[in-house]
Amino acid sequence: MVERPGGAVVSAVLLAAPVVVGSAVGMALIGRLVWAEQAWVVPVAWGLAGGVMFVPSVENVLGWVMFDMRRPTPAELRKLEPSWQAVCEAAGTDGGRYLLWIEHSRALNAFAAGGRMVAVTKPALTLPERYLEAILAHELGHHLSGHARISLLRWWYELPARATILLARLVAVVVVGVARVFVPFGRVVAVLVSVLLTLGLLTGLAFLNPWLLVIPLLSPVLAWSRRLGEYEADRTAARLGYGPVLVQVLSAWLAESGGDRRRMRDRVFASHPAHIDRIKRLRELQGR
């Protein structure tokens, strides 16, 4: 089964463009500071380093450090590998090219990452075999559609921009602290000082890297793009014949959690759609 990049990948690339450009500008500024004569070396090296993320040894390190994962024990592998191989056979893909991991979490969860990482938590291993296969089929869908690869690349290429935003937040904390110093002179004076310092901060940020000002505006749309990827992975699982079983799994999770109680704002910024919405779409696929 060969999947092509869907709307989630296309939208993720388009929406990441401003942030990546912001990162590139930041790396170019760093290049000028550390090596003015060869300033291009820093941004070019940073750009090429994105491909290193998919080197197997590097992915292993990322699994341990970034995602807090470990390799399965022989007993866990005996439970996990047959289900994974069954899913890969249904998709007509080589299951051996992927690395199976165990995530350190007590919650029932699974996720796909990088170029070949598939992880589940220990509670997932207690599920009936068909349920575990349905969850793994969803994760395979992320890999086949390119979601996991683009997610890792985005993480790397957005790092400098995110670091700049973190620095801006720290400066904002300093601004608030300075404004408090002027409170004895009157609330109006304190507010005026904080406003002037904030405007100065934003002006400096816009001058150095105007793309960074766009990032907060993209957050809801980026969350929508990630939810779109979850729907696409569900669709892949359904095409592999796991649609009805995945509905059963999601229905069980929904019943255990007592329903989706997230506020509207939380739903807008959530990276995962509500279980009830996923169930609805899967049933629509079955109806077709």
TrEMBL record:
Predominant location: membrane
MF annotations from Gene Ontology: metal ion binding; metalloendopeptidase activity
Cofactor note: Binds 1 zinc ion per subunit.
Subcellular location: Cell membrane
Glycosyltransferase as UniProt keyword: no
Membrane topology: Multi-pass membrane protein
GO cellular component, one term: plasma membrane
Pfam families: Peptidase_M48 (PF01435)
Membrane-spanning segments: 12-34, 40-62, 163-183, 189-218
Peptidase M48 domain sequence ranges: 87-285
UniProt record similarity statement: Belongs to the peptidase M48 family.
Protein name (Swiss-Prot/TrEMBL): STE24 endopeptidase
Species whose genome carries this gene: Amycolatopsis xylanica
Lineage: Bacteria, Bacillati, Actinomycetota, Actinomycetes, Pseudonocardiales
